[in-house]
Design brief:
This protein has five helices and no strands. It folds into two domains: 84 residues; 57 residues, no CATH class. It is mostly helical. InterPro entries: CSR-E3_Ligase_Protein.
Length: 150
């Protein structure tokens, strides 16, 4: 815009005359309103447009940053839980654990048989040691076997 004014001032006498005629009107009320519009236009083209672009860039950057944080959190969670999942799968599948559980069950079998025998139950747990025809008689027989007083 300034180059047009400079070239117009250098080459055209009509342009110089119109500028000289416009200059006094700039000092009046209409000139101030035109000048204010020109200043606002320059502000909008410069700093305000720059602020708007900066705000858009910040919003884009924050959105990108949040997406990166989400994806990195997912990766970190997978990396952190993977060893625990592998250990748990090995424990479940492990034959050593199964053998140890069976050995523990066998070790307590004698104690379980002794306790069940004291209370009048068969060692297999299928039928009571005393037989009776009715439920009342079975209950009385079990109670008698449990009592140490008789």
């Amino acid at each position: 815009m300034w180059t047009v004014c400079v070239l117009g001032g250098m080459l055209s006498s009509y342009f110089r005359c119109s500028v000289l005629l416009v200059f006094p009107s700039m000092l009046g009320s209409r000139g101030r309103s035109y000048l204010m519009i020109f200043v606002l236009h320059c502000l909008y083209q410069g700093p305000i447009a720059n602020i708007q672009r900066n705000v858009q860039d910040v919003a884009f950057s924050m959105g990108c940053n949040i997406d990166l944080q989400i994806s990195h959190s997912k990766v970190m969670w997978r990396v952190l839980t993977e060893p625990f999942i592998q250990v748990l799968q090995e424990i479940v599948v492990s034959s050593i654990l199964q053998r140890e559980a069976q050995n523990a069950s066998r070790a307590f079998q004698r104690i379980r048989d002794e306790v069940m025998g004291q209370y009048g139950y068969d060692s297999f747990g299928q039928s009571p040691a005393a037989t009776g025809s009715s439920t009342q008689e079975q209950y009385a027989a079990k109670t008698m076997m449990r009592c140490d007083c008789e």
